User: Which sequence fits this backbone?
């Protein structure tokens, strides 16, 4: 495997961790928007497909107490390099939400923008 693929995997994993810090923060909207491609789609359990410019508004839909996890852990993480400027990360989510187990799967597809930054193209979470 080419060393560049390892760097891409590491970059995407770091970005996904950054996304989860944002998603579980007190005010996730601004940082999630900053991490996103302008046409990004978000698919969360029990919510409509969310976009940056859609109705309902992404920032309002992910406002606190969104993802108020007491604890979360990403397991079975797999990064798939699509090409030198795109990749997908998949994982299982084990979390505690208001004292109860919350188990799901997640994936995010990232693309590298012209400024060299990785941006979210689509993020999906499925409650199991």
Assistant:
């Amino acid at each position: 495997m080419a060393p560049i693929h390892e760097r891409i995997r590491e970059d995407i994993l770091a970005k996904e961790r950054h996304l989860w810090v944002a998603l579980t923060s007190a005010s996730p909207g601004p940082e999630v928007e900053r991490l996103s491609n302008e046409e990004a789609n978000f698919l969360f359990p029990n919510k409509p497909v969310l976009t940056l410019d859609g109705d309902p508004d992404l920032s309002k839909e992910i406002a606190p107490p969104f993802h108020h996890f007491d604890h979360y852990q990403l397991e079975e993480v797999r990064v798939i390099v699509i090409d030198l400027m795109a990749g997908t990360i998949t994982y299982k989510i084990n979390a505690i939400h208001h004292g109860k187990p919350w188990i799901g799967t997640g994936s995010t597809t990232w693309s590298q923008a012209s400024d060299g930054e990785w941006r979210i193209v689509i993020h999906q979470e499925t409650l199991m």
Summary: Residues 3-127 form a domain with the Nuclear Transport Factor 2; Chain: A, fold (CATH 3.10.450.50). The mean pLDDT is 93.
